[in-house]
Every structure is written in structure tokens, then in C-alpha cells.
Amino acid sequence: MKGYAMLGIGKVGWIEKNAPECGPLDAIVKPIAVSPCTSDVHTVWEGAIGERSDMILGHEAVGEITEVGKLVKDFKVGDKVIVPAITPDWGSIEAQAGYSMHSGGMLAGWKFSNFKDGVFGEYFHVNEADANLAILPDGIKPEDAVMLSDMVPTGFHGVELADVQFGDSVLVVGIGPVGLMAVAGAALRGASKLYAVGSRPNCARIAKEYGATDIINYREGDIVEQVLEKSHGTGVDKIIIAGGDNDTFIQAVKMLKPGGRIGNVNYLGEGDYIRIPRTEWGCGMGHKIIAGGLMPGGRLRMEKLVSLMQTGRLDTSKLLTHRFQGFDHIEEALLLMKNKPSDLIKPVVTI
Ligand code: NDP
Ligand code: ZN
């Protein structure tokens, strides 16, 4: 079969490979719609997970099942399914402890385009089909549902990590697709003031549509000053970090009220340490909690998130700025993600 692969750090191209084999609990799926991710860009061009050769890329897909293992109970050939980017081993000790995304080791629930071939192939393998796949409901477009693979659950997980409650004032740093889903998730969870940090005008406009009350442009001045001024010096209850760099934590701690929580889902690609400002962290006693996590995967989460789309509470189509038709356009879509033109939020390829 054909696949679009990482050939080595900084190198990509089409390759031929044997089609994947199906284990007794597993499924083989052919993609219907896929989307490249900022993480694919980190993987290839920043060497984020180290050297990989001839590894098919991609971890965001909706597809059709072409084969199921003999122990699979709830899925059959021909079913259209939502495939989460994170596909844990649900029997692992880490999953039993409540951290399925770390099944088999830290971050090891992330398998596609990490430990095995991803979804940019003519076929791909899904472990534990009953626990990791969800049926694509009638009436939900595959291209909209692809956003459930990673963008929605990651942005929403930032909201969970920050523990947003009714009436909280919330700040979301970064309004790329992940941050926009954090804005949408914080609004669903009952945020009152909802500040969103970004600079691109179309992202700012869509952040408002998802519920942001104020846009903070980090290119037009220090975000700490801007947020403290708007909040009359008090700062905010909760912060979700979905963009920025290591020093964003310095800013976040300064903007957070005592008792507040920071939920980070941003990938930190360089440096050895994260710095925390001592006095604003209450000299170690400020009850300002910092949590960071990989999004959880699995079937239940996919089913719950798609139900938000079915009931009209979540519209992911606003994220889709560039649409392609045909498998061969995967390359173009990935390069678009790498070059990030200012009007890009997410590209999607329908196959
Ligand atoms: P984007 O690059 O599309 O968005 C990043 C956002 O951060 C943009 O709004 C950008 O602003 C903003 N930004 C950049 N620099 C700064 C800064 N110095 N201060 C404040 N804001 C800044 O990324 P994605 O939305 O695709 O992904 C966000 C992160 O989430 C990535 O690091 C990605 O790897 C990670 N991720 C994590 C996952 C997880 O499970 N934890 C899963 C998937 C992704 P603008 O462009 O408007 O100037
Ligand atoms: Zn992704």
C-alpha cells in the first residue's frame, strides 16, 4: 500500500509498504478524512520524538473498517468510525490508574505516527477496536468529525486540567485549533470572562464566535499587563495554555489568582527547565496549581464528544479553513501546516 511518510528528520515523501495486519482485538481501517497536525510538523521538522525512518505520518482520521479481529464485538467491516489520536491499551496498569494516555509508559498511549504507522496510509491499524473506536453517527460529516481525533479532546482536556467551573474567569493562551477548542470547552463549562490570546485576525474572530469575551494580542504588548489591566489587577481564576513557549508559564503564574489552576496542553519542544516566578507563586505557598497532560483517547470520550456535535452544542466546521479532495493531497495539506499561512487554522483532506 501507499503512504505519506517521515523518511527521516526533516524528510518526507510517499512510500510503499505492506498493509498492516489485524490482531484478534484490532481493526484495519481505510481513511475517509484525515487532517495533518502541528504535532506532525514537530515530529518531522523538529525531530520531536527522535529519528524515525519510513514511518507513515498522521494521527487524525475518520475511516471505514475493512477488517476486524475475531474477538471484536461491537464493530464490523463497513462501519464508519471516528479514530482518536490516542489509542491506549486499556488493560494496562496505567489505564487502571486512570491515566490511559500513558499506557505502556509516559505518553505511550500515542501510537500513530509515533511507535507505529499513522493514518496517512491507504490502510492503518487500530489496537483494541472495541475500546478505541466510535461509530460516526449519521448526519455528522467526516471532515467535521476528524476534529474529534485530536483538536477537540486536546483543547477540552486543557479545560479539564484547569478545572474550569461555572462563573470562572478564564484565559486561553493560543488560539490555533487547539486553543480555539479550549475556548469552546471553557464556554461550555460556564466561563464568565473568557480572554483569548493570539494575533491572527481570523483566529481572533472565530475565538469570539466560540465564546471569547476579550482578545489579547501578544504582539501588541505584554499579555500580563493587558490581562491585569482588564481584570482590575486581580488576574483570572483558570488558565489554559495552548500556545506560546516555556516562558508562558512565567506569564501564566503572574496572571493567575491564588487558588487558580493552569492546564497546559502545549508541546514544549526545547530547553531543560520551565521557570516559575517565585514571588508570584506565593513563595511556594500561593495555591497556584500547574497541570499538564496529553489528551485521553478512547471510545467513550469520542462518543461523548460527538454527541455535542449531534446536539448542536459544538460546531467544529469553523476550524476547517482549507479543504482538499483526494489521497494525493495529503502532502500539500501537511506542507500547508508546516508553512502556516496566516489564514490557516486546519486543513482537511477527504479521500
Ligand atoms: P498553532 O500553532 O496553530 O497555535 C498556536 C497559538 O499560540 C497561536 O494562536 C499563536 O498565535 C499563539 N502563540 C504563539 N506564540 C505565542 C506567544 N509567545 N504568546 C502567546 N501566544 C502565542 O498550534 P495548535 O493549536 O495546532 O497546537 C497547539 C499546541 O498543542 C502545539 O504545541 C501542539 O503540539 C500541542 N498539541 C498537544 C496535544 C496534547 O495532547 N497535549 C495534542 C495536539 C497538539 P498567532 O498564530 O495568532 O500569532
Ligand atoms: Zn494532532
Write a compact overview of the structure shown.
The chain is of the alpha/beta class and 351 residues long. It has eleven helices and 16 strands.
What distinguishing features does this structure have?
351 residues; alpha/beta; Quinone Oxidoreductase, Chain A, domain 1; Rossmann fold; 2 domains; 6-stranded parallel beta sheet; 11 helices; binds NADPH dihydro-nicotinamide-adenine-dinucleotide phosphate; binds zinc ion
List the ligand species: NADPH dihydro-nicotinamide-adenine-dinucleotide phosphate, zinc ion
Basic shape: globular
- Class computed from helices, strands and strand pairing: alpha/beta
| Integer average pLDDT | 97
Strand content: 15-25%
- What level of helicity do the residues show? 25-40%
Number of strands: 16
Q: Which CATH top level class of the largest domain fits?
A: Alpha Beta
Report the biggest beta sheet as strand number plus sense, adding barrel if it closes.
Answer: 7 strands, mixed
CATH architecture of the largest domain: Alpha-Beta Complex
What is the C-alpha radius of gyration, as a whole number of Å? 20 Å
Q: Could you tell me how far the N terminus lies from the C terminus, measured between alpha carbons in angstroms?
A: 15 Å
Could you give the order of the helices and strands? Answer: EEEHEEEHEHEHHEHEHEHEHEEHEHE
State the fourth-level CATH superfamily of the largest domain: Medium-chain alcohol dehydrogenases, catalytic domain
Task: List unreliable stretches of 5+ residues.
Answer: none
CATH-assigned fold name of the largest domain: Quinone Oxidoreductase, Chain A, domain 1
Tally of structural domains = 2
SS summary, helix count: 11
